[in-house]
Amino acid sequence: MNHYPIFTHLENRPVLLVGAGTVAERKAAALLRAGAQVRVVAERLNPLFSQWLDEGKIVYLGGQFDEDFLNDVFLAVAATDNRSLNEQVFRAAEAKGKFCNTVDTADLCSFIVPAVIDRSPMKIAVSSGGTAPVLARKWRQMIETLIPLESGKMAEIAGRWRQRVKAEISGTENRRRFWENLFDSRFATLAAQNNTAAAEAELVTQLDSFQAAKGEVVLVGAGPGDPGLLTIHALQAIQAADVVFYDALVSDGIMAMVRQDAEKISVGKRAGNHHVQQETTNRLLVEHALAGRRVVRLKGGDPFVFGRGGEEAQVLKQAGIPYRIVPGVTAALGATAYAGIPLTHRDCAQSALFVTGHSKHDGEQPDWRTLALGNQTLVIYMGTLQASLIAEKLIEYGRSENTPVAVISNGTLPQQQVRTGRLKNLPELAAEAPRPALMVIGEVAALGGELGWFQNDKVE
Ligand code: SAH
């Protein structure tokens, strides 16, 4: 079930609760904490409900459910142990367009109640969409341990100062930066110590000295696809970004980790199909940084390995824009590791060469003599279209036609495929391999069969 998460404001709003047993008691207590006016229908009130009635906290409507009770309530909760009564309440609520939650019956709910981590005014709601409440509670426990008990205090103070900060700092990005810096500073310690006065003094100091930040560009390597291969720096950068320029090689799983509100701009290009010219990308990076934004240029693999990161850094340097480079796991490392192919091996490969099958200047020839040497592993990026030429030249310059090869498609992703064979068959293997694909040539390629461990990814 694909629920739309909302937090409702129940203060002083009437809510109908049908049932007054133990389960209803928990529901009533939560509703009362949220400030709702709880109206109870139940044949009998248990002692706690009677006490609430005496204290004037709830209204008692008697033992008989009447559809008209739903007319002016905000929402309803059916919490009896009588399934047909619960169903009657739910159907009536549906007919009247009222939200209704039926305890422990997912198909009789138009809203469900999540497990909550409460650091008021901060709250985290966890839901399994009604499928596995126990797992949702387990998540809750895990998250509880991560979030300091006092962190609600920071939100409380921030709430009081929000308007003033808004008046003094212009621009949503500048304000976001102000709050981020504040929450990472000594302010957090003081808030945790419940020292409100000192925390507010710290806030004022930082507000007075706040300067609109200069933009910067972070060239971030996203790795070959598996989001688990992002570095901590990469994760932090994509979660702090105002704008992310990404290319086609960046996997959906990684894009899902980018800060939700960041602007995401595709500058994807695949060999032979340049969607956005490199010059345009360069210009956009500079423009956005000059506007004071935190720019991330997110690239598949490593930015400095066949990724034009060098060209982009040169442009930034020339424009005087501060930049950082976050390395990533390049395809030659990631895809081979997931295919169980070691790049070097004492028995048969003393070195590994990373080469591109695609050069900027057409007609430029690689040094085939060096590439064809034995005892080395060749890893070829962007090479599947040139596989026939590559195989032919390597054989011509002396590499055995029986040298093992592997073509790894979508390395590290769930749809990874590995095709293995001999150098003389490389053209066929490459032709049928989905892209992106990496070609590995050398004795180590044969080890994939023995050492492959990732999924059932072999294609004969
Ligand atoms: N900067 C990137 C390489 C960009 S060039 C890096 O460091 O990995 C693009 C080429 O990389 C593709 O043509 C393919 O040969 C290779 N490649 C990138 N991701 C890959 C993946 N997940 N599986 C196999 N090959 C990949």
From TrEMBL:
Active site: 247, 269
Binding site for S-adenosyl-L-methionine: 224, 300-302, 305, 330-331, 382, 411
Positions of the Siroheme synthase central domain: 119-144
GO biological process, one term: methylation
SUPFAM superfamilies per the UniProt record, alphabetical: NAD(P)-binding Rossmann-fold domains (SSF51735), Siroheme synthase middle domains-like (SSF75615), Tetrapyrrole methylase (SSF53790)
The EC number(s) this enzyme carries: 2.1.1.107, 1.3.1.76, 4.99.1.4
InterPro entries: 4pyrrol_Mease, 4pyrrol_Methylase_sf, 4pyrrole_Mease_sub1, 4pyrrole_Mease_sub2, CobA/CysG_C, NAD(P)-bd_dom_sf, Siro_Cobalamin_biosynth, Sirohaem_synt_dimer_dom_sf
Pathway terms, separated by semicolons: Porphyrin-containing compound metabolism; siroheme biosynthesis; precorrin-2 from uroporphyrinogen III: step 1/1; Cofactor biosynthesis; adenosylcobalamin biosynthesis; sirohydrochlorin from precorrin-2: step 1/1; Porphyrin-containing compound metabolism; siroheme biosynthesis; sirohydrochlorin from precorrin-2: step 1/1; Porphyrin-containing compound metabolism; siroheme biosynthesis; siroheme from sirohydrochlorin: step 1/1
Binding site for NAD(+): 22-23, 43-44
Sirohaem synthase dimerisation domain sequence ranges: 152-207
PANTHER family assigned: SIROHEME SYNTHASE (PTHR45790:SF1), SIROHEME SYNTHASE-RELATED (PTHR45790)
Function recorded in the entry: Then it catalyzes the NAD-dependent ring dehydrogenation of precorrin-2 to yield sirohydrochlorin. Finally, it catalyzes the ferrochelation of sirohydrochlorin to yield siroheme.
Family according to the record: Belongs to the precorrin methyltransferase family.
UniProt-recorded name of the protein: Siroheme synthase
Organism encoding this protein: Neisseria lisongii
Name of encoding gene: cysG
